Amino acid sequence: MVQRRASAGGSQRVPPAGASVKADLDRINNSVNRLANSFRVVESSVVKVAEAYQRIARANQRKEQAYDQLYEELRAYKDNFLLAAQKPLFKDIILLFDGVRRSLANFEQHEGDSLPKEQVVTCLKHLQEEVLEVLYRRDIELIDEHPERLNIDFQKPVQRIETDNPDEDRQVVQVVREGFRMNGVLLRAQEVIVKRCVKEEQETE
């Protein structure tokens, strides 16, 4: 039964009490639905972030594994390279050791006797040739040039002898240590004793 309320302007229709409750429930239901949708959006975003993190973690793991593998390969390469580079040198040193042993055995045969000078010189020359052969296989050659005048391209004066004769200036008196070249490039300069004219130095000053 519809209730009517009297008023100055006439009667007004009043909605039943159940209609108001239903409207409130509809509003609550809509709010719940919106909240649920928001949760689903957040949940979807969280899942995407988690998946992205997992992809990054797997990529980093692969990078670490690749780095470890590369490190091991480089270390193995370095070890093999050093061994390959040093092995021929070790073999040459062993051959040099054999030459020294032969010389010692030759000397020991004359124990108690005076060893002939010629024999000693022969043994030392043979040993020197073996050393030069070892160096030659490493592309290192003895500088066999011995000019009368100082050549600063491959010679280094380590001592000087003063002279008053200008014609003797820069004259090489003695080779103290031999020089060597490696692949045509100076490895060690030939150390020499040279004469220097005192008069020319004073005139230069």
Provide keyphrases for this structure.
single chain; alpha+beta; three-stranded antiparallel beta sheet; elongated
Describe this structure in words.
The chain is α+β, with helices and mostly antiparallel strands and 205 residues long. The protein has a domain at 143-204: Nucleotide Exchange Factor Grpe, Chain A, domain 2 (Roll). It contains 3 helices and 8 strands; from the N terminus they run ββααββββββα. The protein has a 3-stranded antiparallel beta sheet. Helix 1 packs antiparallel against helix 2. The N and C termini lie far apart (138 Å). Mean pLDDT is 79; it is low at 1-11.
Write the layout of secondary structure elements.
Blueprint: E1 4-7, E2 10-13, H1 17-108, H2 117-136, E3 140-142, E4 155-163, E5 172-177, E6 180-182, E7 185-188, E8 190-197, H3 198-204
Parallel strand pairs: 4-8
Antiparallel strand pairs: 1-2, 3-6, 5-8, 6-7
Helix pairs in contact: 1-2
Reported by name, the CATH topology of the domain at 143-204 is: Nucleotide Exchange Factor Grpe, Chain A, domain 2
Q: Give the helix/strand class.
A: alpha+beta
Strand segment count:
8
Q: Helix-strand pattern, N to C? A: EEHHEEEEEEH
So what's the overall shape?
elongated
Q: Quick one: biggest sheet?
A: 3 strands, antiparallel
Strand content: 15-25%
Helix content: 55-70%
CATH superfamily of the domain at 143-204: Head domain of nucleotide exchange factor GrpE
If helices are DSSP runs of H or I spanning 4 or more residues, what is the number of helices? 3
